[in-house]
Amino acid sequence: MLLLNHSSSILECGTDEAGRGCIAGPVTAAAVILPKKFKNLILNDSKQLSEKKRDILKPIIEYQALCFGVAHVFQEDIDKINILNASILAMHLSIDKLKPIPKFIIVDGNKFKPYKDIPFETIIKGDSKYLSIAAASVLAKTHRDLYMHSIHKEFPMYNWKQNKGYPTKEHRAAIKKYGITKYHRKSFRLLPKQLKLNL
Predict the structure, then answer these.
(1) Distances (CA, A) of 130 to 56, 86, 96, 112, 116
(2) Residue 121, annotated ligand binder?
(3) Where do the DSSP E strands lie in 34-187?
(4) Which domains does the chain have, with CATH numbers?
(5) The RNase H type-2 domain covers which part of the protein (predicted)?
């Protein structure tokens, strides 16, 4: 599938997040401004790419982008403000890091809050339609995966290196056996209803 540049006339960033459905670790967002003539035949929505392809694309995007920003919002804040607000906050924080400042923002999905006074558009499945959102999805996913790899060393029994904090059977079995860590999202259902967890 050929992804498109959304606009060639104004300075525009794409933004996306990774880790909304996880039960441990941060939600991570990236924002990317690509040059007008940027092309890449492999780039797609990060969920459609293998880990190997994402890892190949990460340095290409970071080198060729006009600028990019990546931001984590951690589990303590997710528990305070909920995952939707945390996802939008992570996107805002990633846009904060862009220089130059974009004149327009395109967002994957259908939920966003105004960022300063910059106009924006939400696009369902935007990460499989537009290059800058796809690039942001790859950076959000790869940066989050690197973070989960780093905390895996602290708590290897949950195998975050493999599951990245998603609620796999193995991850939930480890929670049942060992309890939770400081990295778990306490506001999420960490175990199915029939398995009670004493927090």
Answers:
(1) 19, 23, 21, 17, 23
(2) no
(3) 67-73, 104-108, 120-123
(4) 12-152 (3.30.420.10)
(5) 10-199
CB 105, CB 136: distance < 8 Å: no
162-199, pLDDT tens digit by residue?
A: 999 999 999 999 999 999 999 999 998 888 765 555 55
Confidence (pLDDT) at 1: 45
The pTM score is 0.93
pLDDT at 10: 81
Helix (H, G, I), strand (E, B) or coil at 19: coil
Cβ–Cβ < 8 Å for 6, 107: no
In the predicted model, residues of the chain with pLDDT beneath 50 are: 1
The answer to whether the annotation marks 17 as part of a ligand binding site is yes
Around Cβ 112, how many Cβ atoms within 10 Å?
18
Q: What was the pLDDT predicted at 197? A: 56
Cα–Cα distance, 154 to 94 (Å, whole number): 27
Let me know: does 87 contact 5? Beta carbons within 8 Å.
no
Tally of CA atoms within 13 A in the half-sphere of 89 that contains its CB: 16
pLDDT of residue 3: 67
Token pair listed for 156:
């290897």
